[in-house]
C-alpha cells in the first residue's frame, strides 16, 4: 500500500508527487478545468442565473476519467443564493452523481439536516463525503450513521476538535487543506498526535479509503 499524504480537497493547484496527492476542486463557471485528477461541481456560492447551462457543463465534463467526484456542492445558509435555488441545484447534482456513478463532495453551512433529508429523498447511491467538517461529535455520529464520510481540515490546528479526531473511525476519515495555506503534513501529524497512532498507519488508511470510494489507484 502506498504511503503518501492524500489531500482530499484543495483549491490550490500544484503538481502531485510521490509523497503527496492533492485533489483540486473545480467550480463550474468559476475555474478552468484541468487535466489532472480533480472534482467538479456547482458550488452554492456560484450558481448562475442560467444554472441549466451549468448542469449541461457538469454532465458533459463530469464523464471524463480525471473527474473523480461531483462537488463540492450542497447548501449554505450564509450565502446570497436563494435557498430554494440551492436546493434545486443540489438535487440535480445528486442525480448527476448517481447517473455517472461518482462520489459526492458536500459543502454544508448551517444546513446539515436539510442536506441529509435531500440526500435521502434523492436516493443517493454513491459515496458521500462532507468536506471541511468541524462540528460537534454528535452531528458527526449522525452523518456516520447515514454511511457518509467526513473530511477534517486546518481548523484542527487552531480549535479544540480532539473529540472529533478520537471519535471518527479511521475507515471513514479524510483530511484536507481546502483553501487554507496550511500544509497537509501538519494536519496529518496533529491528527496522529491526538489519536496516538503512527503516521504511516494513518497515511495508509486514508489511502485505502480513497481507493475504496473513488476507485482510482494512485500512481497512474
Protein model, in words:
The protein has 220 residues and is α/β, with parallel strands linked by helices. The protein has helices at residues 51-62, 83-100, 112-121, 137-145, 162-167, 184-195, 199-214; strands at residues 5-10, 20-27, 38-41, 67-76, 104-109, 128-130, 149-152, 173-175. Strands 1-2-3-4-5-6-7-8 form an 8-stranded parallel β-sheet, with helices on both faces. Helix 1 packs parallel to helix 2. The radius of gyration is 16 Å and the shape is globular. The two termini are 14 Å apart. The model has no long low-confidence stretch (mean pLDDT 95).
C-alpha Rg, in Å? Answer: 16 Å
**SSE pattern, N- to C-terminal:** EEEHEHEHEHEHEHH
Could you tell me how far the N terminus lies from the C terminus, measured between alpha carbons in angstroms? 14 Å
* Fraction in beta strands: 15-25%
> Based on DSSP secondary structure assignment, what is the total number of beta strands?
8
The main β sheet shows up as: 8 strands, parallel
pLDDT below 50 for ≥5 consecutive residues: which ranges?
Answer: none
Average pLDDT, rounded to a whole number, is 95
